[in-house]
Amino acid sequence: MSDESPRWDPALIPDPTAALEAQLLVFAKELGEGYQRERERAQHLERALGDLRHAYLQTVRSLALVVEAKDATTGQHIERCRRYGMALLAEMGMADENREAEFGFLLHDCGKVGIPESVLNKPGPLTAAEWRVMRTHPIIGYQLVADIPFLRTAALVVRCHHEMFDGTGYPAGLKGEEIPLAARVFSVVDAFDAMTADRPYRAALPVAAAVEELQKMAGTQFDPEVVRVFAPLSERLIPRTAA
C-alpha cells in the first residue's frame, strides 16, 4: 500500500477556498447595495424632515407676524432675536439640544394678542393695574401654544422669557437654573436687540455700550455665563460700523 496521501482532484472536488471567495464577493455586493439603499432612504428622510421643519418655521413666523402687526414698536425684533438666540446657543454648544428654541424666540410675545391695544400701545407710562394686565401675556402665550406638539419646548420660552436670574421676574419668580436655558438665552438677546435698535423714543446704543449694560445686570436680570459667552459674539452679530 502506498503511503502517499490522495491528491486533490479539481475535477472531482470543488476548491473550497474559491467557493468561499465567491460567496464573500456576493455577500459584499449585497451589503454594498443594501448600504446604498439605506443611505438613499436616510437622505430622503433627512430632506423630508428638513422640509417639515421649514414648514413649521414658516407657520410659526406667520403666527408671530400677527403679534408684530399689533405691536407697532417691534419691527424686525422677533426675527433678529431668533437669529441672535440661535447663534448664541450654537456658541454655547447647545443648539442641537434646543432646536425648537427658535420657535419660542419667534413666539415669545404671542400672548400680547390677548392684551388690549389701549394697554399695549399706550403712549405714556402704564398704571399699576395696566402693568398687572400686561404681565399676564406670558401665561396667555403659554396657554396658546403649550398643547401644540411641536411647540411644547418653545412654550417654555414663551412662559419664562420675563423671569430674571435673581428670582425677581414674572410670572412665577423662577431663579437661576430653574429658568429653562433657552429662556435665559432669550432674555439676553431680547435686551441686546432692544438696546441696539432704534426706537421712537431713543436712538440705538452702540454694541459695546449695550454689552456693558448686559454685564452690569449679569447675576441679577441675566445669567452671567450666558452674558459671558454673548459678549464676544455680539460684535459678529452686529458689525461695529452698523452700531
In short:
This protein is an all-alpha fold and 243 residues long. Helices cover 60% and strands 0% of the residues. The chain has one domain: Hypothetical protein af1432, CATH 1.10.3210.10.
Could you please describe the fold and organization of this structure?
The structure is a single chain. With 243 residues, the protein is mainly alpha-helical. The chain has one domain (16-242): Orthogonal Bundle (Hypothetical protein af1432), CATH 1.10.3210.10. The chain is 60% helix and 0% strand. It contains ten helices and no strands. Helix 2 (77-91) runs antiparallel to helix 3. The longest helix has 55 residues, at 16-70. The radius of gyration is 29 Å and the shape is elongated. The termini are far apart.
Strand content: under 5%
What is the typical, i.e. mean, pLDDT? 81
Q: State the end-to-end distance.
A: 104 Å
The percent of residues in helical segments reads: 55-70%
CATH class, anyone? Mainly Alpha
Q: How many domains comprise the coordinates?
A: 1
- How many helices? The count is 10
**CATH fold title:** Hypothetical protein af1432
Order of helices and strands: HHHHHHHHHH
Structure class:
mainly alpha
Q: How many DSSP E strands? A: 0
Essential attributes:
single chain, 243 residues, mainly alpha, Hypothetical protein af1432
Secondary structure topology:
Blueprint: H1 16-70, H2 77-91, H3 101-107, H4 117-120, H5 128-134, H6 137-145, H7 152-160, H8 181-196, H9 207-216, H10 224-237
Helix pairs in contact: 1-3, 2-3, 2-8, 2-10, 3-7, 6-7, 7-8, 8-9, 9-10
